[in-house]
Amino acid sequence: MVHHSRNLIKKAHLFADSVRRHESETPYVAPLMFSNEDFLKLVPSLAGCGHSSPGLPSETDLDDVQKMMMADMLVYLPQDILLKVDRASMAYSLETRSPFLDSEVVRLAFSMPRYWHRKGFCGKRMLKESFSDQIPENIWRRRKQGFGVPVNHWFRGRLGEKFQSLLTQTGLPLQTKKAQQLLSIHCSGKRDYGYQLWSIYLYLLWRQRPL
Prior knowledge:
Layout: H1 8-22, H2 36-42, H3 64-91, H4 103-111, H5 114-117, H6 125-131, H7 137-140, H8 151-154, H9 158-166, H10 176-188, H11 194-207
Helix pairs in contact: 10-11
């Protein structure tokens, strides 16, 4: 996945984007694709419309690592990872289990101090030290690998052309020049706007649905 790249420039862009979106996000709510500023440039007619997602109460007795763990447990896992696994497994009549999400394991993890979870830049410290003698070194030392769809590459090819053609629809509330600018910057390789373009692309497809 792009988020696990060793490219420092890409990581700096990801960090800068997350900072720009930070003020638009509420605690423990999944990240937004666009900052409020960028969204209003893209769809100015929606200014003042909609509602803010409610945030969950802050856990003041948790340290920073535990807060990130809590965010993953309350948002990222149920709204993203587990949701994908559930849909994919049900599609093929499979039963899946997540042993590390056993309630006793979760309680144990939250009861442990920060330094038991991380050591320097190394995460999953307890897991690695507990099973390092049972799992080959090339497995537990390798980089994290996700299952993200390579939309960033798709938009630099035929999907980008399809995106351009969809922008020719009449009556679009989008500022097409802003959407084309995102695509142009993305195709140049200067920034990765794959997921932002994907969200716009799905909306454009939705507009073409038969009524």
